[in-house]
Amino acid sequence: MINQADINQSTETLNVLKQTQMVIKEALQKLGYGEDMFELLKEPVRMLTVRIPVRMDDGSTRVFTGYRAQHNDAVGPTKGGIRFHPDVTEDEVKALAIWMTLKCGIAQLPYGGAKGGIICDPREMSFRELERLSRGYVHAISQIVGPNKDIPAPDVYTNSQIMAWMMDEYSRIREFDSPGFITGKPLVLGGSLGRDRSTARGVTIAIQEAAKVAGIDLKGARVVVQGFGNAGGYLAKFMHDAGAVVIGVSDAYGGLYDPKGLDIDYLLDRRDSFGTVTKLYKNTITNRELLELDCDILVPAAVENQITRENAANIKAKIIVEAANGPTTLEATKILHDRGVLLVPDVLGNAGGVIVSYFEWVQNNQGLYWAEEEVDNKLREILVRSFRTVYETAQSRRIDMRLAAYMVGVRRTAEACKLRGWL
Ligand SMILES: NC(=O)C1=CN([C@@H]2O[C@H](COP(=O)(O)OP(=O)(O)OC[C@H]3O[C@@H](n4cnc5c(N)ncnc54)[C@H](O)[C@@H]3O)[C@@H](O)[C@H]2O)C=CC1
Ligand SMILES: O=C(O)CCC(=O)C(=O)O
Predict the structure, then answer these.
(1) Is the ipTM of this structure higher than 0.90?
(2) CATH 3.40.50.10860 occupies which residues in the chain?
(3) What CATH code is assigned to 48-177?
(4) What spacing in Å lies between the alpha carbon of 356 and ligand 2's midpoint?
């Protein structure tokens, strides 16, 4: 059970690791596992902290701190993105790694979860400084990663160029070409068709499934998207193309709102490589105001802890699909569930990214590349099945979708740990 003392404490915990551990504990209890399984799964089995010296363009040297967390490798090699962000913390990277285990479990991919992060602000670094940082990070973690050990990918403020440098650095260290070391690569370096859009495609499929069960017609539905980067930008475009009206979008600096619908193609054209677009406008709203806009579907696609007990009661959306990892706190999840809002959690909603990363890795291993249609069809099949499994678990057990997703997601790893004789 979730510890009520934790829920009732005067300050809501925004520590994403603690929040995740509480749901993991409850999910394992409901599945009939004992305390020993929780002890094993509540933290990553491996956590590496690295210090990365980087020669800056002005000739000085800056030392950056980075992390790589590998949550559990009982099912197979670990997998998960790398985040470059000033707010990266050790606990955040650990939670992100646990969420990767859950996503892979829900989608039935042969992986455990991992995640990496570097405390830095790439918006203030030059192209060459970013290259040196990316290569330095791979050098520092090279002992614990590899195509059959732990396979990184993009996340916040990292992209296919950074994946290309990282793949090149790893290939140099290992002295052979290793495209399967990392996913989210450019196409000419072994990337998969559809990977760049896959997170948003997956979110779109989750929205379609959620809209069906909530009885909402996507045509004309009012959609608000927080974050206008890889996940949020493509998602806004897919929603617009599906006939929905995207009335609000935002980035790290603020939001844009038009009740008649925003011109998404125009905004995508004007956006910079960090998903920033609002700096071009004077008439902006805050991210908090954006989340509380009157709409049918809300998609947080930026960072953690955006919907908390402070604003959960003010959210007007009927459906929330989490494209971001960890955008809604545990308390907010409960408030929204009690209010009848259908919340599709991150570990299901944004699993499209890792699913197509898995396809990329399979294609690298086979040396045989698929058409985009094949990628899209396989993605749809996995996501629809995943959504239905989680939704039916939530309905039959009368629990919220987050707890249901954790139950479905953690089961494979727990079973694999048992079968390997670890517990
Ligand atoms: N890229 C991927 O394949 C996947 C990404 N995700 C998650 O989706 C979310 C967004 O990731 P990406 O789109 O890849 O990142 P991105 O770097 O492409 O874009 C991030 C967006 O969030 C905005 N942002 C940053 N800080 C913010 C803040 N404090 N408040 C409001 N907006 C803020 C940025 O301005 C930008 O528009 C993250 O939670 C990430 O973990 C999840 C699965 C896969
Ligand atoms: O594509 C991947 O392997 C991981 C993507 C990711 O980091 C995530 O789903 O949060």
Answers:
(1) yes
(2) 48-177
(3) 3.40.50.10860
(4) 9
